[in-house]
Design a protein that fits this description.
Elements (H helix, E strand, L loop, with lengths): L8 H8 L2 H5 L38 E8 L6 H16 L1 E8 L4 H10 L6 E4 L6 H6 L8 H7 L1 H6 L2 H7 E2 L2 E2 L2 E2 L8 E6 H6 L8 H13 L10 H7 L2 E3 L10 E4 L9 E2 L4 H16 L15 H5 L4 E5 H14 L5 E4 L16 E4 L6 H13 L1 H9 L6 E4 L3 E4 L23 E2 L6 H14 L19 H11 L3 H5 L6 H15 L1 H19 L3
Parallel strand pairs: 1-2, 1-3, 15-16
Antiparallel strand pairs: 3-13, 4-5, 6-13, 7-11, 7-12, 8-9, 9-10, 14-15
Helix pairs in contact: 1-18, 3-16, 15-16, 18-20
């Protein structure tokens, strides 16, 4: 899936004013527990789904509400109707779901809390999914270890200690993190027929990616739908910093060197200027449309329509759309390649997806018990991830699935990622394997065998509360410069970077950098036991 944060000055100034109100408006927790029903809700007990909530009372029926990110699929309500049958039997409750679309969640997420909207559970994520910001505003209910163990013992048994540590802010847990390895590395789905035509046997480095882009442009076809900025800094060993402006992109760290505890503010890093000049070279050559900043195309549209020769995204999305493109145009021979093949791979923090409880929920205990079902009950898990068995998918053995029809629900397409649980998640059974499947498996095998070593900043997330005004001003200033620079759409790179630098200095970027350094020093000292 990924996901860029776009905040505007007015919104953040407004939400920062609500901090005091949110801190003082916590509602009393409702009572909730569980019966001794089976975890699967079908007469079969699941290994990790049974809940022992210490005899709490579930005699009163409650209706819970959850917010997810994305767009509701046509069969979503039917699927969740099946989930509610299980929840009614086990916990005497039901759950309704509202969605914040990809286009609106940046502006509407915080309003749910400042407006004290009545709901119980919500998807969250570090950096891109409003976790740190909402905690700073007092919007999430703090989860003590006793609370988790009492109302979600299955979750407590599954989630590793490192994930809980990542979720802590000032020593307190505010979300249930997901439990799965998710690599924060994008790849490219590329037209194999064009690679062969241009005599390019592989795309395993930045230089080879650039060679492919320029060859496409010389042939009169766009290579992609925009500049490959992430591929550049990932190929150079850098990663985004959680909580930094522009979804972490404005301030990077060297994730490949655990001894390097410096932050790299883009306008003080020579690599950014180098990239911007190369991006201009690629843009001027015609590697992507000069109108890309005004495009409403989805990321896969160019590849599927033949307008572009490649698509950059995460591995799973590239596999799926490469296979779709090949089904519709077998002659394209779309394949997957890793432009940063030499780099050990960074696994995303477990808090890259998760679920939190609204501090104003009237049914906190029952909400936690319901989350335990989503996380550890195989029947609920399969429904939320895959849809209805026999309609959308069928089981192959105990741990695989085969898609029947995902057009109206979709595999892992309904923001079920907050409770990803690798211990019970089914793998897809592929009956008619293709070359793309083989390439995908080979790349994943290499990645799993080459996970990079831990860096302290992998779990660091900046809290912008003390510099919220400067943070908002920096975010507002980004729009005039950042995207044009990273897509090579400026007349003079050096002059534009200097204008960009001046704008961010006026907005208060140095205050942000100073506060980040202070927080990082405290964070490192705590982690190192000093």
């Amino acid at each position: 899936m990924k996901k860029r944060m776009k905040k505007v000055l007015a919104l953040l100034l407004g939400t920062s004013m609500t901090m005091g109100m949110l801190a003082g408006c916590g509602a009393s927790g409702g009572t909730g527990s569980t019966d001794s029903g089976n975890a699967a809700g079908n007469g079969e007990s699941a290994a990790t789904g049974d809940v022992d909530a210490g005899g709490a009372d579930t005699s009163d029926h409650v209706d819970l509400k959850m917010y997810l990110l994305g767009d509701r699929t046509p069969d979503f309500d039917e699927v969740y109707g099946k989930i509610n049958e299980i929840l009614e039997e086990k916990l005497n409750c039901s759950i309704s779901v509202d969605f914040l679309s990809w286009g609106e969640h940046d502006t509407k997420y915080s309003l749910l809390f400042s407006g004290q909207e009545d709901f119980d559970l919500i998807f969250t994520a570090s950096s891109w999914g409003h976790y740190e910001q909402t905690v700073s505003l007092g919007g999430f209910y703090p989860l003590s270890e006793e609370f988790i163990q009492t109302y979600a013992p299955g979750i407590w048994d599954v989630v590793p200690e490192v994930a809980w540590d990542q979720a802590r802010i000032d020593g307190q847990i505010y979300m249930v993190p997901n439990y799965t390895n998710e690599f924060g590395q994008d790849v490219i789905a590329a037209r194999g027929d064009l690679m062969e035509k241009y005599g390019i046997s592989q795309i395993a480095s930045w230089d080879e990616l650039k060679e492919f882009y320029l060859a496409c442009a010389a042939d009169g076809i766009y290579a992609s739908q925009g500049g490959p900025w992430w591929q550049y800094f990932q190929a150079n060993g850098f990663s985004t910093t959680g909580g930094a402006p522009k979804g972490g992109e404005l301030i990077l760290y060297n994730c490949q060197d655990p001894e390097d505890l410096n932050f790299y503010y883009l306008l003080d890093w020579d690599g950014f200027t180098d990239y911007c000049k190369q991006a201009k070279e690629l843009a001027d050559a015609g590697c992507w449309s000069s109108d890309v900043l005004n495009s409403n195309d989805e990321r896969q549209d160019g590849l599927l329509t033949g307008r572009t020769a490649g698509m950059i995204w995460n591995m799973g999305s590239c596999k799926n759309f490469a296979k779709q493109a090949n089904e519709e145009h077998p002659e394209w021979n779309v394949t997957i390649a890793d432009p940063a093949a030499s780099q050990p791979k960074k696994a995303q923090p477990y808090i890259n997806n998760g679920v939190a409880i609204n501090v104003n929920s009237q049914h906190k205990e029952r909400a936690m018990m319901v989350l335990n079902e989503f996380y550890t009950n195989p029947a609920v898990y399969d429904l939320a991830m895959l849809g209805i068995e026999g309609k959308h998918w069928e089981a192959i053995g105990d741990d695989q699935y085969k898609v029947i029809d995902e057009s109206n629900y979709g595999v892992s397409s309904n923001c079920n990622w907050g409770w990803n649980n690798t211990t019970i998640q089914r793998d897809e059974y592929i009956e008619n394997r293709t070359a793309v499947d083989d390439t995908y498996d080979a790349l994943m095998e290499k990645w799993e065998a080459n996970v990079k070593g831990a860096h302290l900043y992998d779990g660091f997330n900046f809290d912008s509360t003390k510099v919220s005004t400067q943070f908002a001003a920096v975010e507002a200033a980004l729009g005039n410069y950042y995207d044009p620079l990273t897509n090579g759409l400026v007349d003079d790179v050096d002059a534009t970077i200097e204008e960009f630098r001046s704008a961010l200095e006026s907005a208060g970027i140095r205050d942000i950098l100073e506060e980040m350094e202070n927080q990082a020093a405290t964070f490192v000292a705590e982690k190192q036991g000093n």
